[in-house]
Amino acid sequence: MTRIVIMGGGPAGYESALVAAQHGADVTVVEAAAMGGACVLYDCVPSKTFIASAGARSNFRNADELGIRTNNTEAAVDLPRVHGRVKGLALAQSADIRARLQREGVRLVTGHAEFCDNQPGLAQHRLAVRTADGTEEVLSADVVLVATGATPRILPGAEPDGERILTWRQIYELRELPEHLTVIGSGVTGAEFASAYTEMGVKVTLVSSRDRVMPHEDADAAAVLEDVFAERGTTVAKHARAERVERTADGVVVHLQDGRKIEASHALMTVGSVPNTSDIGLKRVGVETGPGGFIPVDRVSRTSVPGIYAAGDCTGVMMLASVAAMQGRIAMWHALGEGVSPIKLKTVAANVFTHPEIATVGITQQAIDSGEVPARTIMLPLATNPRAKMEGLRRGFVKLFCRPATGVVVGGVVVAPTASELILPIALAVQNQLTVEHLATTFSVYPSLSGSITEAGRQLMRHDDLD
Ligand SMILES: Cc1cc2nc3c(=O)[nH]c(=O)nc-3n(C[C@H](O)[C@H](O)[C@H](O)COP(=O)(O)OP(=O)(O)OC[C@H]3O[C@@H](n4cnc5c(N)ncnc54)[C@H](O)[C@@H]3O)c2cc1C
Ligand SMILES: NC(=O)c1ccc[n+]([C@@H]2O[C@H](COP(=O)([O-])OP(=O)(O)OC[C@H]3O[C@@H](n4cnc5c(N)ncnc54)[C@H](O)[C@@H]3O)[C@@H](O)[C@H]2O)c1
């Protein structure tokens, strides 16, 4: 029986454990904190739960336009309840995952795992597990999966204190909403929290080191978000790189590299993550890390050392829960000799949970504009969609990209309140190489936002006819 040890119980770790157990392996997961990993306890799940509460408050704000008057002009936020719900849901999900793994016969060990091979190049590997009470156990494995995730990056001079200078993992301890929150770093994490706190009624300043928010996302989508921020009084400080954050008697001062200063009550640091790879004995087994400390892997999650695989945020490959899980599953299928296809990143659907949401799949607009990928494109504003009019939605759009000759769908972008749900038909088309004609001839409900996706298919088809 193949002995598999998995370091880390996040999506990469627990999903791979389920696959390995299903295929009859002897599986142990070593997790330093709790099952579900940072994803469930501190990052993805808590943030999306918090955002759900923020969205509920915003629904009140928009009701007036639809002719529904509420008693309170301002919907009040019961923050302890919001935070209690966030933490409760995270713990419950962690417990569910733990129970499922135990049902499948996976051995769970709580502790910090580290390679302890005597030399590199051994056929089997050994891991020393240090538990919280100081005991140590050594595990032997034919296959090891490193799935140790990542941790918030700390900017020197802006060390979080848990009170005024915060990482996104500390915000759920606040007893009151910040008066004025400065969010430092405008990647996806920064944009999501800037949007959520704006919806909670907090004055927000978002510090972006570039000329726009979310430099790696679709530019048209980011522009929509900037419009919403402007309308709701959220300031975006552009070309603004934070040098340090000073704690004052009643707040913080963010010092920018160009000499500007931003005063606020709290600072939320969202300047990226660093992989948890520095203290797990990688050198001892001959695994070299790449730039930023990430572990280089191939498309079936192999490291350069036989028998050692890596998956998830510690590899730096599209840092998403869905990708982490797929990398982990693929590693196990490969290690256990099952037929496996290498991971296809061009088919990954992703969503930014701002208001409105921004969902993407496949080829990007940037790749098309730069000439890297030939494609025909269409962008339909939601303002022309009948359902959007009924709902009072003025912002947002559907973009669809297809191959010039065949009409095969290669990508798309949806900006809408429920973009995370609406992207699926486009993802299905990209994954299965469906054409714009397939979309065009599919019935969508009338009236529906998804009608804009089938309409985009029809408009690209018309272009096709003219070719
Ligand atoms: C604020 C935020 C929101 C996000 N929202 C989304 C989202 O909406 N959708 C999405 O797809 N992705 C989202 N992500 C990304 C997602 O959380 C990560 O991609 C995902 O957590 C990666 O899973 P993982 O298994 O690699 O690592 P993690 O979830 O980080 O789990 C790794 C685990 O390994 C453990 N560990 C570390 N070292 C050791 C060791 N030596 N021994 C034992 N255990 C160890 C850690 O305790 C941790 O529990 C978000 C990220 C952030 C920061
Ligand atoms: N909804 C989701 O799926 C979701 C949500 C959050 C994060 N994630 C994933 O997690 C990963 C990390 O995203 P992220 O946003 O946490 O990190 P990131 O590294 O993508 O963004 C951090 C941003 O901070 C900026 N920055 C760094 N130092 C700065 C400074 N001193 N002053 C001002 N700005 C500074 C960087 O230029 C960058 O734009 C991404 O792959 C993302 O997709 C996904």
From TrEMBL:
Q: Family, per the entry?
A: Belongs to the class-I pyridine nucleotide-disulfide oxidoreductase family.
Q: Does the keyword NADP belong to this entry?
A: no
Q: List the disulfide bonds.
A: 39-44
What does the entry list as the binding residues for NAD(+)?
185-192, 272
Q: Read off the Gene3D superfamilies from this record.
A: 3.30.390.30, FAD/NAD(P)-binding domain
* Cofactor binding notes: Binds 1 FAD per subunit.
NAD in keyword set: yes
Segments forming domain Pyridine nucleotide-disulphide oxidoreductase dimerisation: 349-456
Give the NCBIfam families listed for this entry: PRK07845.1
Alphabetized, the UniProt keywords read: FAD, Flavoprotein, NAD, Nucleotide-binding
GO MF terms held by the record: flavin adenine dinucleotide binding; NAD(P)H dehydrogenase (quinone) activity
Pfam name, any one: Pyr_redox_2
Q: Which metal ions or organic cofactors does this protein require, according to UniProt?
A: FAD
What is the taxonomic lineage of the source species?
Bacteria, Bacillati, Actinomycetota, Actinomycetes, Pseudonocardiales
User: Domain named FAD/NAD(P)-binding: which ranges?
Assistant: 3-328
Q: Which organism is it from?
A: Gandjariella thermophila
Report which gene this protein is encoded by. Answer: pdhD_2
Q: What is this protein's record name?
A: Dihydrolipoamide dehydrogenase
